[in-house]
Amino acid sequence: MTVEKPHGTIEEVGERPSKTLGNSTVGESPLSQRIFSLRNIASVLLTVAVLYLVYRELLATDWRGAWASVQGANVAVFVLTFAVFYCSFSLRGLRWKALLGNVVGYDATVGRPMPSTLDLARIMYVAWFVNCVTVARLGDAYRGCLLKRAAGVSFAVTLGTILAERLLDLLVLAAMLGAGVLVVFGGSLPTEATRALPAGLILSAIGVVG
Asked: Residues with Cβ < 8 Å from 103, sequence gap 6 or more?
């Protein structure tokens, strides 16, 4: 678009830049409205209702007994365990980022920046929640979908890194088991424990991988 000034000069006038407030553009709905939208609230309420019905009808959970157990728990140990568990997602995200960084040709084939450690930890947290409310570890598949949407990483690459994580978990579990044997039994297992050890290792491997 061109406009003529009073002295006859002509000046090009382009589109005005959109006004911004902080990091958001004017006209874009605020983050609080998107988080507390009717769709998100309905999804959360529906999930809570389904979980409640499952635990009440299918599992017949004794909520009074569960609450009595909670009241008898050591609060300090409970809070410490809670904090350690959720802080571990940051370490898991860091490990996942290292595994993704070791994938051959990642930068050349993807062409997008790798998500931060915090973003990867968030993806893992959501995937773990899906694993808790579904069967057959569907959270791992959902994890692959989330990473593909966020960074364009192929589903096969994500499954490969997840398998590598499972193998690392198995190695750490075996090392901790060996250390426990040395501490508790002094390096000499009882006969009963020796017979049960192979079956325990196989079940542990199945639990970690699958």
From this structure: 157, 160, 161
